[in-house]
Amino acid sequence: MLLMADVGGPLQYYWRTVSNAEYSSSFIGYWHVLAALSLLSAVFLVFLSVLVYRADSKKGKNRFIALMLTTEAVRCATAMLYWAYSWPESSLAFLSTVRVVYYIMSLQLFFLYVLTPSFYAKQAWTHRLSRFCSAHGLYLLPVFCLITILGLISVMGGTHVAIGDIGWTYCAAAGSGVGSTASGGSMPFDVTCPESWASVYPMTLSSPTLGPLTQTLLFLPTLGAIFAAVVVTRITGKTQGSDHAQGVELRAVRLGFIGKAVLQITSILMLLTLVGVLGESPTLDTHPFNPDEQVPRLLIAIGPLLPTTVVLAALFEGVVFTYAMAKNEVFGIDEKLRKGFTTAVFTGSFALLFLFATEGMEAVFDRGWIGGILIGLPLVVLRKPILTSLERVSKLIMPESYTKDELSYLALYHTAMADGVLSKKERSMLDVQATAYGITPSRVEFLEAHTHARDSEEE
Fold first, then answer.
1. Do 313 and 260 contact (CB within 8 A), yes or no?
2. Once rounded to an integer, what is the mean pLDDT over residues 189-196?
């Protein structure tokens, strides 16, 4: 029998939970915000995927990377969907399917990472492999991963055993609550709704557990990213000094995999920390509404950060890979990605620091606004130097890239500008060279403006 769980309208519910969010008690509002971040990130990754594909859809490499970013988008969308809303009990079957999709994407990403270096290696067999991956592999790989995961789930005893069960609790008010699981049973404890959560009631809470298959699949994308980073690094070393554009692309792809691996390793370390604190992986008993078990604050803080690091890793990878694939096809994309990266890091860091500071001051002095001032005022005053530093970092990650023809044009431009004056004759000769190189007037304008800006910085 399904339990009815009225939590009010969506706007009313979100306002109630987010405005009354407290780290030490009713923290669900924070989890909703992180879940919203994962959904927005998924939309952004779909946009990047389309951008990479449209940059040059005839290139197999672009189609392959577009599939990778689409896979990342689906994984982000399903990473925290069970925390996106106060789901009714009837949604447990849907949430279980969502988790299956997440781990199918995890397996698919493992293979995509491992196969990526084949597009840059020079051996005959890697060339054949990359051609297959960018054609038939684009649909055979998803089918293979789907069949593999569903087959393993069937062999291991079903979704709720292999992937893990999902606990569901409903609290209408402080006191006794109700609960059930996606597998059809009841919660292994008497649900008790604490008084400290009274400001957010009525509400439901969905809490997933980790099955044996998920514990294996969690590590696979990290291993794939590490493998790809190592192999691409070796390929980069062998191609040093060859094609400039190819070298920039290789370094960007290598950086994307290194960043992905670092963030994924961070996520694994968080998980191992939680397992060390709890003595086991989270179970249905690990619940804030279980009166017989005190949920560590470390779990409350780190728990939602596990899927959040997955989302951040996907975003970093997506931005860097888009830069690598589209920098020479989409005019000005590198500059737009750098600006987007700088803005996202600044605003994201400000939001996190503001949150931690206000919550810290609230817990210590019962004056959260003090933390807001301590963090907000310095960031406002030091905004320009902080943004300048972030812009330099973004240029290190995504440097300005030129083709061979553009480098040749810039060499001629530097020669013409040696005396600081560009005559009509020199301008005419440069225009002829630009036409011969196939450089558009808008690109010429950008190249010359960027050169002037760089020269001014050096002076």
1. yes
2. 89
Q: Which residues pair with 169 in a beta bridge?
A: 179, 205
pTM for this one?
0.79
How far apart are the C-alpha atoms of 22 and 114, rounded to whole Å? 42
Q: In degrees to the nearest 10, what's the CA dihedral of 117, 123, 56, 404?
A: 100
Residues 126 and 121: their CA atoms lie apart, in Å, by: 6
Residue where the block lists tokens 């389309």 = 50
Residues 6+ apart with CB under 8 A from 287: 167, 169, 187, 189, 205, 207, 293, 295
| Pairing outcome for strands 178-181 and 192-193 | unpaired
| Tens digit of each residue's pLDDT (9 = 90 or more) over 144-167 | 999 999 999 999 999 999 999 999
Q: Which residues on neighbouring strands pair with residue 180, listed in sequence order? A: 168
The domains of the chain, with CATH numbers, are 10-330 (1.20.1070.10), 331-401 (no CATH), 405-458 (no CATH)
**Distance, CA of 200 to CA of 205 (rounded, Å):** 11
